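Holo prediction. Input below; ligand is fe (ii) ion.
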Amino acid sequence: MMINARKLFRDISDLPTIPAIVSKVITLLDSQESTPDDIADLILSDQVLAARVIRVVNSPLYRSSSEINSVKRALLYLGFKSVREMILTSYFIEGLNQKEQPFDMKTFWMHSFSVGAISRRIGNMVGYVDIEKAYLVGIIHDIGKVFLGHYCREQYGQMLAGISNTSYTTYEAEYEYFGTTHSEVGLCLAQRWNFPSPYCDVIFHHHTPEMATEDPLLTSIVTLADFFCLSHVAAGTLAQASIPGQSEECAWNTLKQLSNKPIASGLESFLSDLSDAYEDLSREIDQIFNIMIT
Ligand SMILES: [Fe+2]
Ligand SMILES: [Fe+2]
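Structure of the complex:
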């Protein structure tokens, strides 16, 4: 099946890009040995990137009390992980947002940010080591949909119309229509953009968490966050109410096994704990959405 995804990819000349500097900054931010000076120098070598860091650090989302006008201060104020998250998210949005789609992009972003925020919350609940990473991969988990939607627009639109009001998921329908899925094409895109391998693995396996090899706990977090959002959060045309299937059960078992904190005994009560937290989260999601998208 991966062959079909690669074939689709090969035939496209105007693939969305993110600047090479972004991958460099992400790698440097992930490295233990980097200092704020190293990273500030690299960010400053790209004026667009530097301006973006300053703009976002001064946005209401990060609530700094006084204006921050140097990249190094922004790094110290936000921390490396938040800067990594912010840079990748904003370029990701920019790279994909102008692509015409057969579905509503606002709905897509709302789903993406919701899965990001819920992934971070689940990451907290299970004591995951890097909750900012959980947030980031949550946001980018469905990038393959934007690719398929744009480059196979007519067929993808027909597919969505064909499955609306049915119990079919887009994932199942994609196999039938394209012989591949948004997970597989998402992997191709993530590799093309030089995303770190755990990110690629989550994108590839968020519907098949039992196959995850890099970071099974992270993949399970995103699988459950995705399920929660599709079943509990109204998300317009991309929403499909469902009951937990095999992949959610498998993600739940992994979560229980690998959690660093005690968690609810059953998936149902775990999801209902999440629902209780959702009201607070939805305010945060709206805020991020407004800064990033509008
Ligand atoms: Fe997905
Ligand atoms: Fe999703």
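Residues 235-239 have pLDDT under 50 and may be disordered. That is the main takeaway for now.
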